[in-house]
Amino acid sequence: MGATWDKKTSGYEVAAILARLVLEGRMESWLEPKKFSIFQHDLFLPWLPPVLHLKLLQPREQFNGYEQTLIEGLFINGDATDTETIREYYQGKNKSFDPAGKLREPLEKKVSGLTTALKNPLELIWIPTLLIAVCGFFLLLFNAVLHQDEFGRQMLYVVIAFFLYIIGLIGAINYRDASTRLPGRMLFCVGIVILIETGYTSLLYADASLLLLLGGFCLVLAMMNNILNIAKSRDSIEGIRLRQHLASAREYFKIELQKERPELKDAWFPYLLAFGLGKHMDAWFSKYGSSTHVFSSGNTSHSSSGFSGGGGIFGGAGASGSWATAVNSMATSASSSSSGGSSGGSGGGGGGGW
To answer: Mean pLDDT, consecutive 10-residue segments, the chain of 354 residues?
Structure first.
């Protein structure tokens, strides 16, 4: 779900999948404050991410696909694990395990099947851009040889144009893969295109040679065309609608989490995590949790308001944001202990990993 709405795979995929397994009763989870032992006394550090404990409630052979990949990577010593155990294990072995990276390929395939058009109408759209760019390159090369007095001006123009071009490409990719704030993202791309065109216009007032003007024109045309082409969606109409619906659902969840009694259920916790709303749930509990009465029993929890910010399932009432932070810490410690990598937390993920 989360990987579909923003087309990003990160540590929140790990959090969402683990949360779903906990809700399904296939795994148990609880939190403990971070602590250090000093002179036989335990010193608790509440400002650090809590230690996340996980325990399997069914044989690991019954997990399939990317679920099994996570289980094998996180439960490295029996059917129970925690953040500290994982960190020490991978540091000792000088190995890395990137949970989000393991999920990336299967989730991208699933997202592609849900959103991408069967036949890409833009498959050959790069050919005209390439031809124009090649013409511009040789025209500028000839100009550098024939008009060496313009070399400094030409290089300054090319460097600035390529700088704007790189920024435009980043903006175009963000616009293409986004489902929110589309007008602003589109205006950013258009603004970069206009700046590139404006830079070329300055050559017209600089007494430039014909070769420089022609080469600059081809270069600018290729850059602008490429930015606009990159910004075009490769998704099907149904895929675009699906992503927009998911973005609307995320916005609905955000709005509800601003209310004292949101129209939400604790069973939706993995989906809230999938949309990267752990901090919003934590903020909700900090503000309204005192008016919520939570009762935890086994793998279920009940609240007078219908929503408890996570309930007893994830380590106590209002533990949702802390639980999400702890999962990200667990995923990051596994991947960064020997490689310095990070699984991050961009708001991806999904109740079912998609």
So the answer is: 67 80 87 70 66 89 84 86 84 74 75 69 79 93 89 89 94 85 88 90 83 92 92 81 84 88 82 81 72 38 52 50 67 50 38 42
Q: How far is Cα 75 from Cα 54, in angstroms, rounded to an integer?
A: 8
Question: What tokens appear for 273 in the block?
Answer: 């995590």
Whole domain around residue 318: which residue ranges?
A: 1-120+238-354
pTM, entire model:
0.63
Say whether both 84 and 151 belong to one domain.
no
User: In terms of domains, do 63 and 101 share one?
Assistant: yes
CA angle 260, 261, 262 (to 5 degrees): 105
Same domain flag for 106 and 146: no
DSSP state of 235: B
- 226 plus 295 within the same structural domain: no
Gap between the Cα atoms of 349 and 162, Å rounded:
35
